[in-house]
Design a protein that fits this description.
- The protein has helices spanning 14-40, 49-60, 67-81, 88-112, 122-142, 150-160, 165-178, 189-220, 234-245, 275-285; strands at residues 224-230, 249-255, 262-271, 290-296.
- By secondary structure, the protein is of the alpha+beta class.
- Helix 1 (14-40) runs parallel beside helix 4 (88-112), helix 1 (14-40) packs antiparallel against helix 5 and helix 5 runs parallel beside helix 8.
- The protein starts with 13 loop residues before the first helix and ends in a 25-residue tail after the last strand.
- Residues 1-10 have low confidence and may be disordered.
Length: 321
């Protein structure tokens, strides 16, 4: 048996894994901060989240209150208000993320708001910025990082109501962008409508782009794949899959219709990152094996996602008299 995979399957020490997560979170926040400060903020575009809310305060106060100061102060205030609704781990991760992003944006915003935009075209700059925001969010979210903001509000709302976090965040983000209509403006109402309508559309476009990219980034690695394998060497294949990838194998008896021979079929659920490894195992053990794989919408249970459903209050029907 080829044991070349067994070395890579050894688990790293916990502190190494945590350190790598923290470094990756910082990298994701850096990408987000660059996208925001370099491509979004210089064009006076208000986006969603705490960055968008802080941008509103920044321009509403004639650029006297830095974006980073508003971000950090509001995040700490929200954490204090919602501490009892949030877990200790979430609070600590949020403090870390909020501190890092505030420092990075604080270090960059002064320069890029006092110099001409690097990309003069507003649409191109917004698109580029939104792409970087989406990548940054995807990077730090995929390693359990958070920078607070609307995440805190959504987490609180999800604990006291049946509204999903995604819906709360979308409502808040759209509302923040819409509020940019009331920012100080030199001109009459018609000119304000023409100017602000464009900036609001750019802000909503940015929300759509970075949300879409972040979702793709986060869930691509968590995408679940289903394998069905038919092979005479099912025992060897199942043993290697179980011990080399850590994924369980379920077997059941099948029978060929034409030959009447009994065969073993294997069912495997895994993450997309495990697919190549499983293909290699099957190929090495039985090149003639039948194997199918397909994406499944989701798998809940041990080793996969946790099914989060709140108990539903069923109403007892009144008995007819």
């Amino acid at each position: 048996m080829n044991t070349s995979f067994s070395v890579s399957s050894k688990q790293q020490p916990e502190w190494v894994s945590e350190a790598m997560d923290l470094l990756t979170i910082v990298l994701g926040i850096a990408i987000y901060s660059i996208g925001f400060c370099v491509f979004i903020l210089p064009h006076h575009i208000v986006i969603g989240g705490m960055a968008g809310f802080s941008t509103l305060i920044y321009y509403a106060t004639s650029q006297s209150v830095p974006v980073a100061v508003t971000m950090y102060g509001t995040n700490i205030l929200l954490l204090i208000i919602g501490f009892k609704f949030l877990g200790r781990g979430f609070v600590l991760r949020t403090i870390f993320g909020a501190t890092v992003i505030s420092l990075m944006i604080g270090a960059m915003e002064g320069y890029f708001t006092t110099h001409p935009p690097i990309v003069s075209s507003t649409p191109m700059s917004v698109i580029m910025g939104a792409v970087m925001l989406g990548i940054g969010i995807g990077v730090y979210y995929s390693h359990h990082g958070t920078t607070g903001g609307t995440d805190i509000v959504a987490a609180i709302m999800s604990t006291i109501s049946d509204v999903s976090m995604g819906r709360v965040m979308m409502i808040i983000d759209i509302s923040i962008v819409a509020c940019s209509f009331f920012l100080p403006f030199d001109g009459d109402m018609e000119e304000r409508i023409q100017s602000r309508s464009q900036s609001i559309i750019y802000g909503w476009l940015a929300i759509f782009l970075y949300s879409y990219i972040a979702d793709k980034f986060v869930y691509q690695g968590r995408q679940t794949v289903q394998f069905i394998i038919l092979s005479d060497k099912w025992n060897e294949i199942a043993h290697r899959i179980t011990h080399e990838t850590g994924r369980g194998v379920t077997t059941w008896d099948g029978q060929g219709y034409w030959t009447g021979d009994g065969r073993k079929l294997m069912l495997v659920w895994c993450r997309q990152v495990d697919t190549y490894h499983i293909f290699c195992i099957v190929k090495e053990e039985d090149p003639n094996a039948y194997i199918t794989n397909s994406f499944v919408r989701s798998v809940y249970g041990n080793g996969f996602d946790t099914l989060k459903i709140k108990p539903r209050k069923w109403k007892t029907p009144h008995k007819k008299q």
